[in-house]
Amino acid sequence: AKAAGKNQYSFYNDQLEKKLQLKHQLEKALSSKNDRQCFEIHYQPKVNTNTQQILGVEALVRWRNHDNQLISPCDFIPIAEETGLIIPLGEHILYQACSQAARWQQRGHQLSVAINVSTVQFEDKHFIDTVKSVIESTDVNPNLIEIELTESVLAKNIEHAKQLIHDLKEIGVNIALDDFGTGYSSLSYIKDFPLDTLKIDQSFVKNMLHDATNLTIIAAIIQMANGLKLSVVAEGVESEEHAEKLSEMGCPIMQGYFYSRPIPEAELTEKYQLS
Ligand code: C2E
Ligand code: CA
Ligand code: CA
Ligand code: CA
């Protein structure tokens, strides 16, 4: 029992050490503007399966460390949030994603670019000014930009969220509710916030073919979105069977590994002939 206790102790110690190391590296990478290039944005297409056309992409950040390994956002976004480093990082991501949307726009491709925004960013009092100045400096059509928020971001401070979403809509950007259906959501979010898009959470999609409850929930979300004139996107589409079923159910807009993983801009440009 004593040995097990010791192992347990060193396990937590190792975890803590790893986290501190990551935090230190993150601080270093964000302290100099030049080092920010190690945060790469990959893009995952959003496809309309009725027309087989790419409608837009979601911007997803990755971190390339000293050893040239790509670190997943699940491993560093929480640390960036805890430390406040998500503010400069978020600004960098916003700038990169808007610049990319502007480049596609200049080449005649009206691709929307969805950008994830976390609670800490959303609560930052400079957030709206940052969005405004990035849109101005990149010269992107704000209608091509979609901000993805989760229900928990909205729940944190409803009055603040209402004001900020109002301000964002005034600039012309679109708002998507991400991971919809997870979290202890209330339908009043849909009523109270002027949303443009609902993103059906991957967990429902993943289980839809073998579990009638998930299928029923998806059908209800699609029907509600159609009734309220919101776009609806299914996430985590991994197979043709999923795609066919979703399309049959009236949700032709999809994102998932079946179409493409998140990939670097150059790869996306080649795959979808966006040059
Ligand atoms: P999310 O916003 O829900 O993003 C969707 C995640 O699902 C992405 O993971 C994507 O690669 C993955 N995914 C897409 N299609 C499939 C599929 O068919 N099957 C499966 N199993 N997974 C799929 P990723 O890139 O690792 O990002 C994880 C989370 O990290 C994101 O979840 C988001 O919450 C956060 N994140 C990523 N990039 C950013 C960012 O730029 N800013 C902020 N604040 N958060 C970010
Ligand atoms: Ca997202
Ligand atoms: Ca999601
Ligand atoms: Ca998520």
From TrEMBL:
Q: Name one GO biological process term.
A: phosphorelay signal transduction system
An example molecular function term from Gene Ontology annotations? cyclic-guanylate-specific phosphodiesterase activity
Q: Which residues form the signal peptide?
A: none
Q: Does the keyword Hydrolase apply?
A: yes
Domain of life according to the entry: Bacteria
- Which key words are in the record? Hydrolase, Phosphoprotein
Start and end of every EAL domain? Answer: 19-275
List the protein's name. Cyclic di-GMP phosphodiesterase Gmr
Biological source species: Marinomonas aquimarina
* Whole-protein residues included: 540 to 814 of 814
